[in-house]
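Appendix B: a complete holo record

For completeness, this appendix reproduces one full record from the ligand-bound portion of the collection. The bound molecule is zinc ion. The inputs are the chain sequence and the ligand SMILES; the output is the full three-dimensional arrangement of the complex, encoded as structure tokens. No fields have been trimmed.
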Amino acid sequence: MIDAKTAEYRERYRRELIPEGYSGRLHFTLILGFVAAVLVIGVVRLEAIQPLEWLAVPLTFLYANLAEYLGHRFVMHRRRPGLGMIYERHTLQHHRFFTHRAMQFDSSDDFRAVLFPPMLMVFFATAFALPAGLVLTWLFSANVAWLFVMTAIGYYGSYEILHFAYHQDEDSWIMRLPGVERMRQLHLSHHDPSIMQTGNFNITWPICDVLFGTRVASVPDDVP
Ligand SMILES: [Zn+2]
Ligand SMILES: [Zn+2]
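The structure of the chain with zinc ion bound, as generated:
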């Protein structure tokens, strides 16, 4: 049962922050479409990959896991100069909209409280992926650059899909996919206000949480 304070915040969020005509389904489709388009372009551009070039995939995966962890722990949960908007959108909005006692969306309009703004994808692509891709092409090869970009964008896609899944209804079929329920438990604990600043910063695979000793496996006792 959703408590009065969260219900009141949700109403305020919907009134003040969800623009007229917003479509949660379109928002999610745009993100998936962008990820799929980059993956398809990458597949077309890859050519005669050498065995060592494949190393770019696991290394980028681990790098993305670290970036997810550090970004969530030190930017999304701490106000940083110039990055206050990210802190606001995550700690002050996402964590108030969803608590461990109220994890589910009420309607597709609420997707806005989970998904990254589409403009941020354009920003990530031009500010990070493009320069990193150019440097990797120069240092190694175009294949390494494309494998980096594809793994990074694939990781971002998995972040959005998993985070979206965790805020679905508990009876949703998504929860029955292998591993999703266990990872959701970790994110559920992270939504407990007493834990959100200290544990479960990986939204996807809890590799860095284990490495840095911030994994909280127990579920809060007051989950309805
Ligand atoms: Zn969440
Ligand atoms: Zn958080």
